């Protein structure tokens, strides 16, 4: 796979203290008895032409974060700025121009495509919704998008079930590109694909980034996949970012014990290099009642008493390298 594109220091997306807490309701009166702290105060930026990988085990809140950023679900708190404008409080109408600028590609291309629409109509739908009324112009733009993502124009009249998994994800990418966005959120966009197809789709995303100066928030549970496409990586655990650094810093000098455990599970291509495997004990605790202090203390091999009572802050330990751990 090719190296990631060089980036410009111009933030497309600035996320500050983003929170998404879901109420837990019980009883006949549906009283709120608690909250699921799915996203609990995360902050990061994504520059023009940059990919930020957001990684963590399933249930850590990364997909919820992606949806809250795009306001597919309403955040509980925090701000989201796109190209300098705070979009977190905009009304639906005011939000409309920003909807064009930020698109999402989901994990399962089959369930995210309407089985009763042709592939051409699926890709052309955002154009229609955003005012490209002329059928001829729409068809031309859809055909160009099919060319660009490696599909044949003749396939525009086919239905989703007539495509392979990789081709269906190409349809989703073409649809996301239709309105010429600045940012694409990929929510596990290659996780459902075979390994060889994953590489093709990642190469396509990288080529598109180079051509269009696209920015990506690439959400994945797989650190090895994220390594290939990301300029920087944010590691998430139970609703919080525990480490945030360049991809090189994470892979050569990952500091948080959770990052260490995730890294130890990444295969090393050189058989001469042996990585000590650290198997994490247990599952991610419930975000309804997260552990006190450092959320990771119930699984951390280095935990000390302080970890149970005091939540560590995310501190910059080296330029651009942020870690949330009392011992770093
Ligand atoms: Fe482990 Fe304590 Fe660091 Fe949390 S703060 S990661 S429990 S050592």
Question: How would you characterize this protein structure?
Answer:
Helix 3 (119-129) packs across helix 4 and helix 4 (135-148) packs across helix 5. The longest helix is centred in the middle third of the chain and has 18 residues, at 195-212. It is built from ten helices and twelve strands. The strands form two sheets. The chain has an eight-stranded mixed beta sheet, with helices on both faces. It has a four-stranded antiparallel beta sheet with strand order 2-1-4-5. Helices cover 31% and strands 25% of the residues. A hairpin with a 2-residue loop joins strand 9 (232-237) and strand 10 (240-246). It is globular and about 70 Å long. The chain is an alpha/beta fold and 328 residues long. The chain has a single domain, classed as Rossmann fold (3-Layer(aba) Sandwich). It has helices at residues 62-69, 92-101, 119-129, 135-148, 165-177, 195-212, 223-229, 247-253, 257-264, 305-309; strands at 11-26, 31-47, 51-55, 77-82, 85-86, 102-105, 183-187, 215-220, 232-237, 240-246, 315-318, 321-323. Iron/sulfur cluster binds at residues 257, 294, 296-297, 300, 302-303, 307, 312, 325-327.
């Amino acid at each position: 796979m090719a190296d990631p594109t060089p980036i410009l220091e111009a933030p497309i997306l600035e996320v500050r203290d983003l929170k998404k807490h879901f109420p837990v309701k019980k009883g006949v009166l549906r009283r709120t008895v608690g909250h699921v702290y799915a996203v609990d105060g995360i902050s990061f930026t994504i520059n023009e032409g940059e990919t930020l990988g957001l990684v963590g085990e399933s249930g850590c809140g990364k997909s919820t974060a992606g949806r809250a950023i795009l306001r597919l679900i309403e955040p509980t708190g925090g701000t989201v700025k796109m190209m300098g404008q705070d979009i977190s409080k905009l009304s639906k109408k005011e939000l409309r121009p920003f909807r064009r600028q930020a698109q999402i590609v989901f994990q399962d291309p089959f369930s995210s495509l309407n089985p009763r629409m042709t592939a051409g109509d699926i890709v052309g739908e955002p154009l229609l919704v955003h005012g490209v009324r002329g059928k001829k112009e729409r068809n031309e733009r859809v055909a160009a998008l099919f060319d660009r993502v490696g599909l044949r124009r003749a396939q525009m009249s086919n239905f989703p079930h007539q495509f392979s998994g990789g081709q269906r994800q190409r349809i989703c990418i073409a649809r996301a590109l239709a309105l010429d966005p600045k940012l694409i959120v990929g929510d596990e966009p290659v996780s459902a694909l075979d390994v060889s197809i994953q590489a093709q789709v990642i190469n396509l995303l990288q080529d598109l980034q180079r051509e269009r100066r696209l920015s990506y928030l690439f959400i994945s549970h797989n650190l090895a996949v994220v390594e290939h496409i990301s300029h920087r990586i944010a590691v998430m655990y139970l609703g919080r970012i525990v480490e945030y650094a360049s991809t090189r810093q994470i892979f050569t000098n990952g500091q948080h014990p959770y990052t260490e455990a995730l890294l130890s599970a990444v295969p090393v291509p050189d058989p001469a290099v042996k990585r000590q495997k650290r198997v994490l004990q247990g599952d991610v605790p419930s975000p309804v009642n997260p552990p006190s202090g450092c959320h990771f203390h119930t699984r951390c091999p280095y935990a000390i008493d302080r970890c149970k009572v005091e939540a560590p802050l995310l501190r910059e330990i080296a330029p651009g390298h942020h870690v949330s751990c009392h011992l770093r």
